[in-house]
Amino acid sequence: MTPPSTAPNWRYWRRSVNRKLHLNAFLSSVGHHEAAWRLDESDPFADTDIEHYKHLARVAERGKMDSLFLADQPGLWTDIGRRPTCALEPTLLLTVLAGATERIGLIATASTTYNEPFNLARRFASLDHISGGRAGWNIVTTATVGAARNFGLDELPGHRVRYARADDFVEVSRKLWDSWQDDTIVADKENGVWGDNSRLHPPEHEGPYVKVAGALNVPRCPQGHPLLVQAGSSEDGRDFAARHADAVFTVQQTLTDAQAFYADMKARAAAFGRDPDTVKILPGIVPTIGRTQAEADALDAELDRLIRPEYAIEQLSGMLKVAPEDLRLDEELPDHIATEDQVEGGKSRFTVIVEMARREKLTVRGLIGRLGGGRGHLTVAGTPTRIADVITEWFTAGAADGFNVMPPVLPSGLESFVDDVVPVLQQRGLFRTEYAGRTVRDHYGLARPANRYELSGIR
Question: pLDDT per residue over 307-327, tens digit each?
Fold first, then answer.
């Protein structure tokens, strides 16, 4: 195995040649393709059916996947005419799934813009206790005006302001998780002392955006801190991830771009004094799987045929800041679209989509098809071996530590991935055949964070 000549920073790839893949199951109603609900096999009411999610969780755990992942935002995702858009509150849903599984990690999205640190830190600590150390938090700043207006704001807070608040928010969340030392509960029945008050450490935090006085009302959780995940790839998002994240969910379309992002994130983590190997880079992949290439292509084409273009054009026009009538289905994107510096929400996703359309000379119809399945993520249609080949190439070429697997159709797409693709990766020695630990940090090969007060010698 030789290092890829295109990898911008080869030393971070070389350090872990014998590492194993990390694979998350990104669950989304009946699938990530916007038209999946229209297939004969799909249940259009599945997004509120807990048995549907229990089945998906058990399938993913059968495949020894690292985690389940649920996206979320405090508002409707899209026009309800377009696709199922219900979203059960993710930490509640994952609490139920914790009881339906034993080992798989449980990652929920929650916004730092529209929550308060005490409530959110308590919620994730509770999930970690309930699940025996399997909780993870995907930290987002929420980039929609609709969400802002659900919380009494007329406009979306600025990009930098949202990230500055997120930084303050995560800092005090860490203090809250450390506000109980591991040995705070002494349970001395003979002397009638349940806990040692000297081992409680209220944050007394006054930051530029958030203020929290008291200690958490939940003991330190099994993992110390829940796994921290981040999903923004703008400059502010990258720096935030380099400071805080254990895993980074990212959108990359080409191997070269993914290698550059991978090297950049590892270098940023090192610049913040962190071991780059402890920051896992996980692009999204949307695999359409068939027994033959023709079967996979046929499913891909059927899904794209079921897209309602009028809905897609309305959404695309809002993103690109052009009138819907300027987006002609059989022509390429017009020249007069926004630039990244004119976009306050979803900057990195905007750039990926526009660059993909320009690079591949996609018509609007072609772009709608690509976005219908992956919303900018890497889409691959093929046999299990072809899907495994793409994953292997990116993993061994310094482009990814693993993938956020986004089946276009659920549950069949996840079942096919677990039953047909995972065994190929296992045969290649790239993925586990059994779980080695019980916590999601164990799955990622990450140490339990030490309590800051124990490190400082405070008793």
Answer: 887 777 777 777 777 888 888
By the 8 A CB rule, do 48 and 61 touch? no
On the question of pLDDT at 79 being above 80, the answer is: no
Give the rounded distance of the alpha carbon of 108 from its chain centre: 8
Closest to 321 (Cα-Cα) out of 274, 354, 282: 354
Q: Which of 60, 256, 380, 263 is nearest to 248 (CA)?
A: 263
d(CA 436, CA 47): 32
| Degrees, nearest 5: CA angle 198-203-207 | 160
Using the predicted structure, report yes or no on whether residue 374 has a pLDDT greater than 70. Answer: no
Q: What is the pLDDT of residues 330-371, one digit of tens each?
A: 778 887 676 655 555 556 667 777 877 787 787 877 777 777
pLDDT exceeds 90 at position 21: yes
Q: What integer pLDDT is reported at residue 386 of this predicted model?
A: 98
What's the chain look like in SS3? CCCCCCCCCHHHHHCCCCCCCEEEEEECCCCCCCCHHHCCCCCCCHHHCHHHHHHHHHHHHHCCCCEEEECCCCCCCCCCCCCCCCCCCHHHHHHHHHHHCCCCEEEEEEECCCCCHHHHHHHHHHHHHHHCCCEEEEEECCCCHHHHHHCCCCCCCCHHHHHHHHHHHHHHHHHHHCCECCCCEEEECCCCEEECHHHECCCCEECCCCEECCCCCCCCECCECCEEEECCCCHHHHHHHHHHCCEEEECCCCHHHHHHHHHHHHHHHHHCCCCHHHCEEEEEEEEEECCCHHHHHHHHHHHHHCCCHHHHHHHHHHHHCCCHHHCCCCCECCCCCCCHHHCCCCHHHHHHHHHHHHHCCCEHHHHHHHHHHHCCCEEEEECHHHHHHHHHHHHHCCCCCEEEECCCCCCHHHHHHHHHHHHHHHHCCCCCCCCCCCCHHHHHCCCCCCCHHHHCCCC
Predicted pLDDT of residue 458: 55
Tokens of 376: 């900018």
- pLDDT tens string 162-183: 999 999 999 999 999 999 999 9
Residue closest to 354 by CA, chosen among 320, 329, 304:
320
Q: Residues for the chain: how many in total?
A: 459
